[in-house]
Amino acid sequence: MTALEERPTQSAAVFSPTFDAQTDPLDVIRWALQTHPDLTMPSAFNLNGVVLLDLAGRAGYTGEVVFVDTGYHFPETLTTRDNLATRYPQMTFVTLNAGATPEDGQTDASLYSTDPDACCAVRKVAPLQAYLRQRAPSALLNARSRDQASTRADIPFVEEGTRRKINPLAFWTREQLEAYAAAHALPVNPLYADGFLSVGCWPCTRAVKPGEDARAGRWAGKGKTECGLWAGDGKL
Ligand code: SF4
């Protein structure tokens, strides 16, 4: 049986591919496109996301790239999004919550400091959940990888749940991602070079210190490690 053949799991209607840690992410994406033609890709345009976008383009992905504008993104992140939209015209870049600002009344403008879970729930998770309920894709293409954080150390290529998540970069290291981005001159968020190895909203992101996980700068000191899109009760 090859890596791309499928075998039945719990039910006749559910199939899981026989990938292993050495499987090329491109093969995972090609399988995903065959299996889920309505595949959708949420992205925050971090290093992982930029690499995944490029690989997806090479594999023939022409679907949507969905970004949630919380109103608190760094200008560099919005510029990165625009650069990517120009580079990959075959994909449709969708910005949800567009026009959100800290003063728009959507939340208390400083809710991020008093209740970051509630802030993420309203500004990030809710807009994407609503969009996905409307579009109802059968699977999501996601850029998380195991070495981003100890909390992501078990991410599989194919993750079942409310929606199937396909994680082609699950086994790639940061060094592999950086090497790929450099080899293909990808427009990585310039904050990355300043130590922002994972870039979220400006009130909740700091540069990473030597030896820290790539995501250690997210919600540092707030007892929070995920925005709620990929972990927790309301995860996608
Ligand atoms: S990362 Fe911070 S500012 Fe952004 S939505 Fe979450 S709590 Fe709010």
Attribute tags:
236 residues; binds iron/sulfur cluster; single chain; Rossmann fold
Structure description:
The protein has 236 residues and is α/β, with parallel strands linked by helices. The chain has one domain: Rossmann fold. The chain has six helices and eight strands, in the order E-E-H-E-H-E-H-E-H-H-E-E-E-H. Helix 1 (25-35) packs across helix 2. It starts with 5 loop residues before the first strand and ends in a 53-residue tail after the last helix. 36% of the residues are buried. The structure holds iron/sulfur cluster. The site of iron/sulfur cluster (SF4) has 13 residues, from helix 5. It catalyses: [thioredoxin]-disulfide + sulfite + AMP + 2 H(+) = adenosine 5'-phosphosulfate + [thioredoxin]-dithiol. Belongs to the PAPS reductase family. CysH subfamily. Catalyzes the formation of sulfite from adenosine 5'-phosphosulfate (APS) using thioredoxin as an electron donor.
